[in-house]
What we know:
By secondary structure, the protein is mostly beta strands. It contains one helix and 26 strands.
Amino acid sequence: MKYRWPLKMAGLFVALFGCCATFLSAEDRPSSAIPNVVVEHSNIYAVPKRFGGWPANHGIWSWDNNEILVGFAAGDTKDLGPNRHAIDREKPEEHLLARSLDGGKTWKVENPSEQGALIPAGAMLHGIAPPWLKEKPWQDCPGGLDFTNPNFIMTLRMTDHHIGPSRFSYSTDRGKKWHGPFRLTVNDPDGKPIGIAARTTYIVNGPHDCFVFLTAGKPDHEEGRVFCARTTDGAKTWQFVAWIGDDPKDGYAIMPSAIRLGTSELLVTIRCRDEKRAWIDSYRSTDNGQSWKLDSTPAPDLGEGNPPSMLRLADGRVCLVYGLRAEPYEMRARLSNDGGRTWGPELTLRGNGGGRDIGYPASIQRPDGKIVSTYYFHDQPTSDRYVAATIWDPSRVPK
């Protein structure tokens, strides 16, 4: 079974440009032995005086004909200082889609709200809802969804990144028309509803069977703690499966990215932070999600932190992409030859960032084996944030 990752209007600027990248040297390997894997960069959403960001929150999906769809947020640029996102929180924030039909080289932005779609609706996390956009009432999903439909995609979104609530929408035509929003309700082991801050991460198990990986609000109403939930009736109901990791007392564990490695083996990477540092941990389950054990720390220090984007590649390797929110402000990746137990040297996919407002990647692998990693970036401290893609070739990295 193939597992996909889920993730201005007229006059948008779509630019395509080539660039070279280099790898960070590993302590046990000379830098000259590490090849340049970057094929090219392309712009997805780069509009003057506009902010584009956070593909990881929305989802990414792909098909065998080199079609890719990714979601992201857009708003007006406003400099709020070096430690805050440069988006005007008093202006409307939109949730948009971008589609590529040539494997990530060029992109066309779509505004689903113009079609009555439901992805962009609801409370905005960083700005306010556009005045022309009113979300339809949330419903209970009737169930029966066929997750194995090759044109099926699903997006899971929150209204508050601390305690939710959350909902999901789905499409059966590759994101052209959406159905929903539907309430996303999960009870904890004691039968109490969990406050869910959902982002789009799921694994399809069968026609009506799907895992979702979510962040729960903590008892103090802060974010958060990761858990796994499951539906076996096509999204009519969702059952709690297991917590992933301990309750982080002085920080958070949020924004999971998950893959299946075998019939009963799953791997999840999680964005973590405490009072001293921010990093990415991985957890492994060998009983199909029923229990989890801390496995490795593939990114031990990411400045102020960034979420992971993880893929199982066609050749069996595991790929992890993330942003470094500290100098030198880069998009990076690592590969694992043993199912995520150990990781190769860090690879720089894009360097020379303008500051900490970067990252939130979402990645897919093309039919030809190349990886398309989407993320947001900026080149100078006060320059506009834009959504971009890097096409890179993992086959150039020795196994």
